[in-house]
Design goal:
Its EC number is 4.6.1.1. GO terms for molecular function: adenylate cyclase activity; ATP binding; metal ion binding. Its cofactor is Mg(2+); Mn(2+). InterPro entries: A/G_cyclase (IPR001054), A/G_cyclase_CS (IPR018297), Nucleotide_cyclase (IPR029787). This protein has a single domain, classed as Nucleotide cyclase, GGDEF domain (Alpha-Beta Plaits), CATH 3.30.70.1230. Helix content is about 35%, strand content about 25%. It contains 4 helices and 6 strands, in the order ααβββαβαββ. The strands form 2 sheets. It has a 4-stranded mixed sheet. A hairpin with a 3-residue loop joins strand 5 and strand 6. The C terminus is likely disordered.
């Protein structure tokens, strides 16, 4: 069941959209123009606590590195995802549109997508990625 196995992606998308909305409110009341850039990826990770004096929880792996690259090569005000993540999000009812192929440090050329954040998840999955 694709929706169940990727439901955490929907939670992350809703969180990122909520962060953007909250930032809009902060900007309005503080006369600032802060903008958010988000990168998402999904897959296996390794997690653990490191440090004897100041223990910290951290996650590692290719999934984390690619998500970081999606953020750093992204565009302000947008959520950039990998092609595989775009397909998974589509199965949850989100719409993504192609950004095209971009050079990603350490990964070469990757086909990336922007998540359509004008509308949150609505109805059944769309038939197109765009």
């Amino acid at each position: 069941d694709a929706e169940r196995s990727c439901s955490h992606l929907g939670t992350m998308v809703e969180f990122a959209v909520a962060l953007g909305s909250k930032l809009d409110v902060i900007n309005k009341h503080s006369f600032n123009n802060f903008r958010l850039r988000v990168g998402l990826n999904h897959g296996p990770v390794v997690a653990g606590v490191i440090g004897a004096q100041k223990p910290q929880y951290d996650i590692w792996g290719n999934t984390v590195n690619v998500a970081s690259r999606m953020e750093s090569t992204g565009v302000l005000g947008k959520i950039q995802v990998t092609e595989e993540t775009a397909w998974a999000l589509q199965s949850l009812g989100y719409t993504c549109y192609s950004r095209g192929v971009i050079k990603v440090k350490g990964k070469g050329q990757l086909c990336t997508y922007f998540l359509n954040t004008d509308l949150t998840r609505t109805g059944p999955p769309s038939a197109t990625l765009g």
